[in-house]
Amino acid sequence: MTDKELDQKLTAAFDNVRADSAVKARIRKGLTGDIMDNNKTITVSKTADKNERTGTIKVNRRGRIAAAAIAGVIAVGGGAYMLKSGFARVEPKTSLSSKAESDSSSAHSDKITYNGKEVDELPLTNEQMGFDPSGNSIYDKFSGYCDIRNLPNGNFLVRLQTSIPIEDDIISTCYCVYDPSVNSITGILPTNDWNCYSIGKNSIVFCSTDRDAENKIGDDKGKVFTTNLSCKLYDLDLCEMENDTLNFQLGDKHVEEVMVSADNKIYLAAREDYSDNKYKLYIYDSEGSVINTSEECDWIYSCSMSLDGGFIYYATQNRDSWSTTLKCIAVDDKHIDCEHTDGVYDDNPWPHYAMYFDSGKYLYTVYYTDEGKQMIRRIDMTGEEEIYFGEPEDVINYAGEVAEERYVTPDGKYLFTYNVKDKYTEDGGIEREYDITSTYDIENGLKLVHEEKAAHFMWLSSYGIGINLLYNGATGDVCFGGYKDEDEKMFAEICFNLFDKEFSNFGIKKSVKDNNEVKETNTSPSIPDVSGLECEAAENELKAAGYTVILKSKYDIEKPKGKVIKTEPAAGTEFDTEEPVTMYVSKGKIPEDYEYLIGLIKIPEGLRGRFTVDMDSEDYHFSDDFIGEDMDGCIALGYAGKDTSVFTVTITNRDTGKSVEYYKEEYGFKPGAGRKTISDYDTEGLLAICSDEEIKSSEVTLSIPIPEGLHGSYTAKVGDERISGDADKKEPISVTVTGRGIKEYHVEIDSNETHKSFNGGIYSVNFDENTVERLDNNCLYDTDYISDDGKLCLLYDGLLLPEGLHGTYTADIISDNDSYTDTLYSDETFLSFFTLKFNGNGTQTYTVRFTSDETDKSVEYCKFKVNFEDMDLSYISEPNKDGLLAISPKD
Amino acid sequence: METACFELSGFDAVYDEYFDMVYRICYVYFHGHTADAEDAAQTVFMHYLEAGVIPETNEHTKAWLIVTAQNVCKTMLRRHHRKDTELDAASDKGAAFEYNEVMDAVMRLPENERMAVYLNLYEGYTAAETAKLMKCRENTVYSYIHRARKKLKKELGG
After folding, report:
1. Which of residues 43-72 of B touch A (CB under 8 A)?
2. Most buried residue, A212, A311, A541, B57, by CB count within 10 Å?
């Protein structure tokens, strides 16, 4: 089934969800009869203030989805189609304004500013600002949620949402400049006013908008809106450039975009909305004069200023064709220098609109041909070069229906897109992969240089302006910041270097600047073992040992999300503190769209010792322990991935700590894809690290309680052992097992009288330490996945049911914020257990209630507490077996 | 300007225009229990009347109703659980609906996925708009829909 067929089914299903017209009428009567007369017009509220609650939900449904719907309808009739793809005209401009030449973008100043003025030192301490210079990544340095953006001079503008008491006032927002070269804040602009801002080549404009509404009285009734926009210019150090605030009176228009040119002039785009969902865009210069007005249209987007500040772009769409028209207005002479129209290519089920971006000199368009081939058009806005058409080196991944999700670095060299990657499946459908960040080298034919999943990155909500996408063109460092609800803090989610060099953390020095003294970090000879710790604790431990930490994340079946998998170099390695340590943190279980396959690799016979095998691909880690003596010349590995992945297998001797890179292969997950050796088994290397002496087997005795409901003669199966006995003696089953290392035993007990099978439990036996642990006792045995809201989803299949139960029951599993209904078919339940699933955090209390479908009677069966952190469960009230049997049908 | 400030023509118009939508949201929240959905829808419109807050455009009215409907349903569901009372008997679940199979599959989705599917795929809100209405991140909306689609396809045999 394609997505579209599914959508159609869903639409039809939802269409059928309707209250009966009698019900509708009854409710209406109930409401209006009591409170007001029918047909009475509700008084329109007097001020917009009252509207505060709704004011935050600014929803303008414009074009986009409607376009998708129209395209979809046409596609049903005649397959994919392409609307006209016209190219109107280009009028080359003689030269770009030379003002951009005298920019300050590369200049670094030593200015320290506060509240727009230059000062000797900042009046706020780092603590007051929530700034911690010892944090490793830029994100670690700031507490809470913050927006960080690149400044053209290599510094970063940080918008802190914080509460700072300043002169009897509480300041809610603080803008500050962070200079990585000195690892400190060099400018602070505390404000309660400026609620939007825009970064230009040489300056930043901060603005605040006010929207008032008042009712007209008399004959000409209605509501009148007035929007006031105040703006002020600051330089890149947050120093005021002009004393005066610029005010725009916009009447009933909405502010669409504030822009600042290279010569520090403010431009404004404002939108006028009409009742029939039509819009018109007005572009104002700093004098308040309109320099351009769009035609009336159904949708406006991509309004922005070019990187060199020479042009203002905007795109419009109309409902008749949904093709997109882009206009480029030269800011110095208001001339429309370029205007063109691109059609929408309906690539079922997603329509693809053209995407525009500019790199300073060139204006690029990514568009599609009739056949669905992605193409690039490049226009030299200086008018010197011919228009260039061609295919991009690599397909540019962008959500075709949201063509605004892209960012071009301030130097115009790299294009970042975010969100989706489409893949065509065999049945012609499209599989979408989400949260993918893709980086393209613009000057190198738009070659894809990096692609990685970033599930916590939050750029989507702020179209194309590069919030939390940190970039340094000189060093090639890139870092995506993510936000974790559970930590209420930003973190460096993905960091890499565009030039294939080591990520240098934007040149932030490893020494920590504190109280104006530079403290050299301690040196430590070996890396501490932090595996299994929470990310933050591990990072702190490594930092305490003097190391800087690069965070990377991988999926891991064993390690819960957020726990450290391992470090590189490994724990215990003597390592210079000048070099950063890479710490791998678990991203949790593999995503649902990954394949998980078991593969075997050979190991030499006669291998002695306790080993750990680690297998790594780009985004996945697998680890297992084994005893050399117990293996029959091979070990099993769990491979996870999507298409093909390269896996490196490392084997470590746990007693000596020595390890060897044993094997490297490419593993294909598609049927028939097979495996390909990249570097063959390093048998000699592995034998060189094996232990000298054979590990001896030892004996451990297990004591297994008789399961409830088992009577008379039984036979218990524990590994290869068979033990018989009489359950009525109530003596635990005692069994001795022999082995090495750690082994798991699943105990099954069969009644010799009823031939029913009982679960005797799962035991982990550690032969080295002579210990036994029951694994399934009050323990949630599986973490299914972690949902986006950070909740753990756990499965528990140990809810005991009474013997002799039959019939079908509705099970209501109820807790304060996690409830669901399930069905219990007891006759089919051979083992007397019922599986429950839980979704939550911390500790939650659950009640399980069964209702017999046959007798319609219900019983509260049990109550228990689930501790999600420890993955533990304990009963508050034990299963009411008699109660459940009492409501079951007689036969 | 007159055109920019859409004046509401009264409760009847709003009720006629949006009752089905509000009802659907409640229906989605209450796993298809019609009586609960009706109660919730009634409460939503009661809040609308009592609030005396008239959003400036139709779209705002709609958004206000969606957010209020979600809040009302969540409160009602919490209350149900606290009192440990049963929701309406499942007997009327999906009665008289032609697309039982599809709706039943939708009802088996987690609450957030259900709501995201409804707002995004049926109501036609973009992911960004859906995110605002559901008070979550846009990313989350995408993954809700992504997951929901996958589960629904599996359940509906495709």
Report:
1. 45-46, 49-50, 52-56, 59-60, 62-64, 67
2. A311
